[in-house]
Amino acid sequence: MKAAQFDNIGLATEVIKxxxxxxxxxxxxxxxxxVTKANIIPADIMIIRGMYGxxxxxxxxxxxxxxxxxxxxxxxxxxxxxxxxxxxxxxxWCQYVCVPANTVIPKPPVMSDDVAxxxxxxxxxxxxxxxxxxxxxxxWLLLTAAASAFSKFVIQLAAQRGINVIGTVRRDEQxxxxxxxxxxxxxxxxxxxxxxxxxxxxTEGAMVTAAFDAVGGPLGDKVLNTLQMNGKxxxxxxxxxxxxxxxxxxxxxxxxxxxxxxxxxWMANLSHEERMTIIPEVLTMLTxxxxxxxVEAYYGIDDIIKAIEHMEAPGRSGKILLSFTD
Length: 326
Hints:
Helix content: 25-40%
Number of strands: 16
Structural class: alpha/beta
C-alpha cells in the first residue's frame, strides 16, 4: 500500500515521503479500514515537527483523522465488511490502517466522505470548548484564527445558542464568510491599530466573556486584555510559535482564568453517558448540515507535499483533503 511517512522530525514538506508498505493485518480487537478520505489539520504538521502532545514513533505515517470502510476484522471482532466508519489514529495518510474496533465511529449512511473525514477533531473540539466555557445567550466570545475550520464550527454552534462571536483574521477577504456564518464582528489583527478599542466598539463596551486562542504571542496578550472581569481564556494552539506574555496584574485584579484545552484529554474525562449523547448530537448536526464543513481541494497521496503546501498557504476558504478513491 502507499503511505505518506516520515523517518525524522522536521518540516513536513521536507521529511514526508510517499513509500510502499505491506498492507497491515488487524491484530485481535482491531479492524482494518480501507481509507477513502483523510483530513490534513495543523496538529498533523505539529506532530511531524515534534511539537505536539502525541510523540511519533519513527518511522511514522502522517495524519490523524479520516474515514473509510472496514475490509477486515481481527480476532474477537465482528463488524460487517464494507461498513463506513470515522476514525482517529496516528497514521491516517495511507491506503489501509488498523485501529482498535472500539474506537471507530459508525459513519451515518447519508454523510459524505468529505464531511466524515473531518467530522471528529474540529467539530468535537468546538463543542467541547463551548461546553467548558459555559457561555450563556448574549455573552461575547472572541476567536483568534477565526477563518480556520475549527473556528467556523464554533461560530455556527455559538450562533445557534445566541452567543455573540468576534473573530480575528489576517485578510479582509475572509471577513464576509464569517459574518455570513453568524459572527457579529471580524477584526483584521494585522491592520487594526487599536485592538482593544475595536473589541470595545464591537461589544458596545461590554468586552468579552471568554476567548479561544490558537495563536499565542503578542496577539494572545491583546486578547487577554479584552476579557471582562472573571473572564476565561482557553488556549488550544500556538500558531505563532511564541508564548503568551501573561500580565500577572491583569490576571490578579480581573480574576482571569487561562486554561489549556486538548480534545483527547476532554474526551477521556467524559462519562459514558455524556459520550453517548454528545457524539450522535454532533454527527446529526453535520449530517443535516446544521454545521457546514467546507472543502477547498483534494489531492492524491502522491501529491502529499503539494497538499501540505496548500494547507499551509494563507487565505484558504476550506479544508485540504487527501483522496484515496481515484
